[in-house]
Amino acid sequence: MHAVVLVGGFGTRLRPLTNEVPKPMLPIGNVPMIVRLAERLGEGGVTDIVLALGFRPDAFREAFPGDRVGDVRMHYAVEPEPLDTAGAIAFAARASGIDSTFVVANGDIVTDLDIAGLVDAHHRLGVDATIHLTPVDDPSAYGVVETDAAGRVSRFIEKPSPGETDSDLINGGTYVLEPAVLDLIEPDRRVSVERETFPTLVADGRLAGHPTDDRWIDTGRPETYLEANLDLADRADAIHPEASIAATASIEHSIIGAGARIDGEVHRSVVLPGASIAAGATVRSSLVWGHVPADATLDSCVIGEGAEVPAGDHRGLRLPEPG
Ligand code: GDD
Ligand code: MG
Q1: pLDDT tens digit sequence for 103-131
Q2: What residues have their beta carbon closer than 5 A to ion ligand 2?
Q3: Which of 46, 69, 130, 269 reaches 20 to 30 Å from 289, CA-CA?
């Protein structure tokens, strides 16, 4: 079975971390997000993954020696220009000759969803497309879904305005599609699966939902990227064996990447590969890929690759500032 994984977005909300590296290549608990996703797809019966890419294909190609993750073969479909979600799915599916039931996954989701279970539900429901649904407290930032008693989707509203729907079930960003869905997607133009293709399928009664209460996080914002990492922060491998941790260091509930150097205090934070925290510095609830000097305190900050934090107390700092 094939899976198309959407990885062509710009990761704007995670800047500056995504200035140099695409979002799905960022680590969660020291393992690139895309590797975790590929492993989960492989466990669910996927043999071939097509990465639907808009930009920076090289960062991905280099990360998969032999174009494999475990037993799963990796392929790359590079759009000439970003075609939006449905455009990217159709472009990748056509480029790789997909002609049977396939999986689609947004590249920025961390979840324990059982892919094989989703595929079984899809066949049982007998529809052309089945989307994984998950409940969230604030659905406004997602695609919100209403279903009927038989599990069919009766309404799909992407990023609803307040009061537009009472449903707290959202599109979890993993789908099972029949190739017939591709016929709905015109080539060579931007098409959104959420705003065009799903509403068309709903109108024809061809879209179903499969709700689960698995752990689920969209890592696209700094708070949620941090949360996905902190979920793993108390495991033995949260501190990478190639990190260097001084005797003066104090680390609490955090992830420390390869080649990071910690001499100061780190609480509930992610320190990415190659970053450094000097003795006398304190870092809280932050994502750090740069260098924090002795006389700095960070709270809820996002520090990009190689950035030098100035001395002083910082709250909510983004460095380099988005320009
Ligand atoms: N190849 C390609 N080309 N990929 C794209 C493009 C494109 O033009 N545009 C977006 N993507 C990819 C992103 O890289 C990401 O993996 C995925 O499509 C979804 O884009 P996001 O920008 O992360 O969307 P979102 O988080 O606001 O909303 C989506 O995900 C939610 C669940 O997390 C929607 O699918 C919502 O309906 C859903 O609830
Ligand atoms: Mg997202």
Answers
A1: 999 999 999 999 999 999 999 999 999 99
A2: 108, 218, 220
A3: 69
